[in-house]
Amino acid sequence: MIGRNFPQFPLRDAPWTSGGAFLDHERAKSELKALMPEDAKEAIGHGVKAKRSKSGAVSFDVLETEATNAPIQ
Predict the structure, then answer these.
(1) Max CA-CA distance within the chain?
(2) In terms of pTM, does the model score above 0.85?
(3) Which residues pair with 49 in a beta bridge?
(4) C-alpha–C-alpha distance, residues 33 and 40, integer Å
(5) Any bridge partners for residue 44, and if so which?
(6) What is the 3-state secondary structure (H, E, C) of 5-20?
(7) Is the Cα dihedral 21, 23, 44, 50 positive or negative?
């Protein structure tokens, strides 16, 4: 394998190299953390559960929601 020529992939055009999705994820995570009050141990809403650890770190879990039979408009 040493010295074998592999084709050069255009990584500069790859969607994961721009950082867009990563930056969107980090922004959304910080916005969710800002919504949780500092003195709250747990918060639940809109299918997301946030828990604060003893050290103050906030973790998120996605809750499974029941399927509703809402009318389609």
Answers:
(1) 63
(2) no
(3) 44, 61
(4) 11
(5) 49
(6) CCCCCCHHHCHHHCCH
(7) positive
